[in-house]
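task queued by scheduler; priority normal; single chain, no ligands, no partner chains; default sampling; output format set to structure tokens
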Amino acid sequence: MSGHSKWANIQHRKGKQDKLRAKMFSKLSKEITVAAKMGDPDPDKNPRLRLAVKAAKSVSMPKDVIDRAIKKSQMGDAGDYTEIRYEGYAPNGVAIIVEALTDNLNRTASNVRSYFTKSGGNLGTTGSVSHAFDRVGEISYPLTAGSADDVMMAALEAGADDVESDEEGHWIYCAVEALNEVSDALERALGESSESKLVWKPQAPTVLDLDTATKVMKLVEMLEDDDDVQDVTGNFDIPEDVAAQIEV
């Protein structure tokens, strides 16, 4: 699930992330291989690969696994993957964006459509919901990076556009093309970030009640369980007390 959310934090505390560890590593490895194949295998010379490696390190992926994924990009069995985005609506009109890397477009489209249908939602056309999101760079820091005011000042000086801080940490947003520059400036000021990535940031998140949240998260989990799906984003917010009651 892209971005930060109460559900992601509750899910982690419930231990569900442990079961998803192997799948998460597999998806990150695929992104690393594709990024290295499309550009330079040196992360310092390839912004996309640099972000992919940073994401892998943020979830403690072993260095040898990262190195193998990069080396695979230079081999004949790296595979040909197509990047594709799907957009649709979960129950109660909640907007969902699905990003995938696939070597079989027909299989992925069929699977994604079936997940939306099974959950009571519907798959739309490209552009049908993305207008409700902003494509931005997101850099996250733990609370130990400093106070909200200190992080805000550092972010603005680094060229960021916005900062959100809460009891879970700090999230700094910037223009897509400025992500690497802002990230570098922040690391000089605040130290290494937890994660730097491109995200779809909802413009006006809808707060979900328990019934809707349960239905929406069933769809999200079906999507995230698919090997072709790399990321899922929705324009919703689930309060922590509601997230704690969800059983998916």
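post-processing summary
- The first helix runs from residue 6 to 13.
- The chain has a mean pLDDT of 88.
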